[in-house]
Amino acid sequence: MSAMLPVLMYHGLHTHANDNGRFDAVYSVAPREFERQLDWLVAHGYRGVRLRDVASSGDAVKPVIISFDDGDVSNHDVALPLLLERGFAAEFFVTADFVGQPGMLTDAQTRVLAAAGMGIQSHGCTHRYLEDLDEASLVAELSESKRRLEAITDAPVDALALPGGRGGERERRAALQLGYRYILNSAPGSNRYHRDGEYLQRIAVTRGLDIHDFASLVTWSGLAPRWQQARFRMLSWPKRILGNRRYERWRSRVLGA
């Protein structure tokens, strides 16, 4: 792949902390912000497509992958109608154990997303960080998630987004061996030189992101991409030093997220 392929990473869409779903101070994007971002994409010739359709999207539009992690109920209630209004598809990376929990997608809502042409993909079974698992647990986490989501939607699950973006070569190989075709992490980038079977980079869309910075990230130009990469590198150090569990406690205490 020589052209850029922006892959946007969302979670829930919430205006207020008491909205239906699981609010996150960093990753809960307000619905009005999301709508404005979609309209910017439309106005600049982008079209939201499935991963499997990138190669056949043609030259008339610029493909963008809109992805959602975890399976918040707002994916169905808020994101779906806004996407359909614009003729966009998206990939929803659902944590299998979260289905049916308070604030999360139900089986029926997951099927509605799939029937509307959206992708239902894996975000692990329990949301445990894959790099923390032994080999047997890793295989079980990836295979069980795939099996359960395919049973809900009666459609193939061929993409995996690493929970927390944590994982490396071992996790990539395990996913490919289990039948996943697309593997996404949380490293920011443009995917300009991506090759099949490699990790796809993603652009985190966070709460309050200015539309000009959003445009800068999608086009991978200006200061916003540099800042997102620098932030990613800065946070990688405490992750390595503290380990995943202690890092999450530190993040909650220091960043309030």
General description of the model:
With 257 residues, the protein is an alpha/beta fold. The protein has a single domain, classed as Alpha-Beta Barrel (TIM Barrel), CATH 3.20.20.370. The chain has eight helices and nine strands. Strands 1, 2, 3, 4, 5 and 9 form a six-stranded parallel beta sheet that branches. Strands 6-7-8 form a three-stranded parallel beta sheet, covered by helices on one side. The longest helix has 20 residues, at 223-242.
Keywords summarizing the entry:
globular, 13% strand, 9 strands, 257 residues, alpha/beta, TIM Barrel, six-stranded parallel beta sheet, three-stranded parallel beta sheet
Q: What's the SSE pattern?
A: EHEEHEHEHEHEEEHHH
What is the CATH C level class, in words? Alpha Beta
> How many structural domains?
1
Oligomer: single chain
Largest sheet: 6 strands, parallel
CATH topology: TIM Barrel
Distance between the termini: 35 Å
Compute the number of strand runs.
Answer: 9
Find the CATH superfamily. Answer: Glycoside hydrolase/deacetylase
Helix run count = 8
Query: Structural class, judged by helices and strands?
Result: alpha/beta
Portion of residues in helices? 25-40%
Radius of gyration: 17 Å
Known CATH architecture: Alpha-Beta Barrel
Q: Could you tell me the mean pLDDT?
A: 92
- The low-confidence runs, each spanning 5 or more residues with pLDDT under 50, are none
Report strand %.
5-15%
What form results from the Cα inertia axes? globular
